[in-house]
Amino acid sequence: MATTENPTSTISNRKKELPGKTSIADSVVATIAGIAAREVDGVYAMGAGASRAVGAMRDRVARSVDPTRGVKVEVGEKQAALDLDIVVLYGTAIGDAAAEIRYEVATAVERMTGLEVVEININARDVHVPGDDSDDEEDEARVH
User: What SS3 state is found at 55?
Assistant: First the structure.
């Protein structure tokens, strides 16, 4: 009498045992990190002065946001290190926001890629004061 294995168990065992290499591009890690950082309360934008201005113009033309703006990564075989440039909302406790960003980014990157995050440097590049947007004034002038 022949015995048969449960096909589901064969498939799940195969997932773990099948040889091959998975490589993860720097841009994948940067995208994950950028999205996770933007979701933290107190983060107004990502990027430094000139790159943020150019990126904002590009976003308007493309009608989408580049999640990698303000994110630099180094990805090795098993580890990743990140540098994030952020703009915080006025009144935000920068140290608390930075700790939350580190936690959220590390959690997202490690969960989605399996890489160990060994370092996250956060550079607060600017403070956004609500109501002090020259972009809003330009948009209003175009409506006339």
Answer: helix
